């Protein structure tokens, strides 16, 4: 269905699968340390901007105790994800405002925009984890105000070793400390045009 530019199996494994798996330790460790220690094996997670199912489908397969919801706006990708979920017997889940323990996003948008997409979905006490490149400090600094407005704070930047050609990546972990104001997220397209 031509969902990614990568066609070679080895490159898909290195660039996409291993990169998606690399964020599992930061999710588990952060959730154990800062959220609910008893439930890190049974998380309710949403993958915002799932695309070809990265990282959501990979996480659903690798962590079968997690309830993973895939969120995607493009119909072609939704059809693919629905078909693949049925083939893999992963089922379907409904998403609700502030109902997820964890929201993840990989290769969707810059942090200010991602925060507005993801944090309204995370329950108070939950995590937003963004998979970014090896040097995201400036992007994170630029997003701190938006993250705060949306009811969270940056908890930590976790270097993760990906075996993809891109090497070291960073999992940016944010802790949701208060409810997101009801006016967020704004209408589709607005977060990209005028980020917080």
UniProtKB/TrEMBL annotation:
Record-level Gene Ontology MF annotations: rRNA (guanine-N7-)-methyltransferase activity
Pfam families: GidB
Keywords, comma-separated and alphabetical: Cytoplasm, Methyltransferase, rRNA processing, S-adenosyl-L-methionine, Transferase
InterPro entries cross-referenced by the UniProt entry: rRNA_ssu_MeTfrase_G (IPR003682), SAM-dependent_MTases_sf (IPR029063)
Gene Ontology CC terms, in alphabetical order: cytosol
rRNA processing found in the keyword field: yes
Gene3D superfamilies, per database record: Vaccinia Virus protein VP39
Xref: NCBIfam families: rsmG_gidB
Record protein name field: Ribosomal RNA small subunit methyltransferase G-like
Organism of provenance: Prunus yedoensis var. nudiflora
């Amino acid at each position: 269905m031509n969902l990614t530019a990568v066609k070679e199996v080895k490159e898909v494994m290195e660039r996409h699968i291993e990169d998606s798996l690399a964020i599992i330790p930061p999710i588990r460790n952060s959730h154990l340390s800062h959220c609910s220690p008893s439930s890190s094996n049974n998380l309710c997670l949403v993958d915002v901007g799932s695309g070809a199912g990265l990282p959501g489908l990979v996480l659903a397969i690798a962590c079968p105790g997690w309830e993973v919801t895939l969120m995607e706006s493009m119909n072609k990708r939704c059809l693919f994800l629905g078909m693949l979920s049925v083939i893999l017997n992963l089922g379907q889940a409904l998403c609700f405002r502030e109902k997820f323990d964890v929201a993840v996003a990989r290769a969707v948008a810059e942090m200010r925009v991602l925060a507005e997409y993801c944090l309204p979905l995370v329950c108070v006490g939950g995590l937003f984890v963004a998979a970014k490149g090896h040097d995201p400090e400036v992007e994170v600094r630029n997003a701190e105000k938006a993250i705060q407005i949306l009811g969270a704070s940056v908890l930590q930047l976790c270097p993760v070793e990906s075996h993809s050609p891109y090497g070291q990546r960073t999992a940016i972990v944010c802790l949701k400390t208060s409810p997101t104001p009801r006016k967020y997220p704004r209408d589709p397209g607005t977060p990209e045009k005028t980020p917080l």
